[in-house]
Amino acid sequence: MDDLNSLLEPGMRVTHPDQPDWGVGQVQSNIGGRITVNFPEAGKVVIDGRRVALIPQFT
C-alpha cells in the first residue's frame, strides 16, 4: 500500500476506499506514511498509509 500512497502530494485529490461518504478530499501533507487529508464530509483526517490505500482522483 505504501507505493501508491508515497506518490501523494499536497493538493492532490483522493477518496478513502472504506469511507466513500466522506467525499473527495484534498491531501494536506504526507510525512512518513502519515497522510493528512481534508474531506468535505469528515473534516481533517490523518490516515496511516501503511493500512489504507487512498484512491487518487484525476477529475
Description:
- With 59 residues, this protein is mostly beta strands.
- The protein has one domain (2-57): Roll (SH3 type barrels), CATH 2.30.30.
- The protein contains one helix and five strands.
- The relative contact order is 0.32.
- The N and C termini lie far apart (22 Å).
- It has a five-stranded antiparallel beta sheet, with no helix packed on it.
Question: What does this entry show, briefly?
Answer:
It is built from one helix and five strands, in the order H-E-E-E-E-E. It has 59 residues and is mainly beta.
Any chance you could write out the topology, listing elements then pairs?
Layout lengths: L1 H4 L7 E3 L9 E7 L2 E6 L3 E6 L6 E3 L2
Antiparallel strand pairs: 1-2, 1-5, 2-3, 3-4
List keywords for this structure.
SH3 type barrels, globular, single chain, 5-stranded antiparallel β-sheet, mainly beta
Query: What is the annotated CATH architecture?
Result: Roll
Strand content: 35-45%
- Major sheet attributes: 5 strands, antiparallel
The helix/strand series, from N terminus to C terminus, equals HEEEEE
> What's the Cα radius of gyration?
10 Å
- The low-confidence runs, each spanning 5 or more residues with pLDDT under 50, are none
- Report the mean per-residue pLDDT as an integer: 94
Oligomer: single chain
Overall shape: it is: globular
Strand order of the largest sheet: 4-3-2-1-5
Helix and strand content put the structural class at: mainly beta
Count the strands? 5
Tell me the helix content: under 10%
